[in-house]
Amino acid sequence: MRKKMKPVVQEEITGCGIASSAAIAGLTYKEAKKIANGMGIYAEDQSLWSDPQHVRNLLAKFGIGTDQEEKAFEDWKSLPDCALISTNWHLEDRKPFWHWAVFVRNGAEQYVLDSKKSLKNNIRKDLGRIKPKWYIKVHS
Question: I need a surface site. Which of 86, 90, 98, 124 has the fewest CB within 10 A?
Fold first, then answer.
């Protein structure tokens, strides 16, 4: 695994995919947003919230690989050392939407980097309260 990852807070209410990608890449939100926008990826584009390919493409631009398929979440111990997780998964007009966050395991320590601006601490260790639906393995 890379050096210890730090959370990146999303600067837009819908910027969780950009913020999660920035955290994995070690960039600021502003840096990641500029690159994402140059690729045609915008936080306000609803497809960013319901198509995992956008974050895969953004991470690939940063030189970071991911699995090409999502895997159903079973439990925290079965996750890889770094994964994008889909939380707050729900349907709107029969279309899936979710919030992106990053699961990190460093030795015995595990936590979630959650970019939500209103959180007091964006490094979450309250894993029992987080309910991922699926995840994408991030390659180190």
Answer: 90
